[in-house]
Write a structure and sequence with these properties.
It is found in: Cytoplasm, Cytosol. It holds the Pfam family FliT. The chain is mainly α and 94 residues long. The chain is 80% helix and 0% strand. Helix 1 runs antiparallel to helix 2 and helix 1 packs parallel to helix 3. The termini are far apart.
């Protein structure tokens, strides 16, 4: 994997994670699930390892990772309470 391919992968994941955050805010669970699958497919390219980056490329990778993490947090902030409500609704009453 070249440094350009590494950055392209992170760019794609950042864009997908942003769309995931939008879908979560809109309550579009089908789109969120579809985007999550696409994101996982993109990230699977990194399983074999990625070359280390330096300089401007390294800074860009870090910036993209920060965006991805912020989008992930936004999705979790919406889905975790909803999942808790769903869990309580499906639990047998005591």
């Amino acid at each position: 994997m070249t440094s350009n391919e590494v950055l392209a992968m992170y760019e794609n994941i950042a864009a997908l994670s942003n769309r995931m955050a939008v879908a979560a805010r809109e309550g579009d669970w089908d789109d969120l699930a579809r985007l999550e699958t696409q994101c996982a497919l993109q990230a699977s390219a990194a399983k074999s390892g990625v070359p280390p980056l330096a300089g401007v490329e390294r800074k860009r990778k870090i910036d993209l990772l920060k965006q991805i993490m912020a989008n992930d947090r936004a999705v979790r902030d919406i889905t975790e309470p909803w999942m808790g409500q769903l869990d309580r609704a499906l639990s047998p009453a005591h």
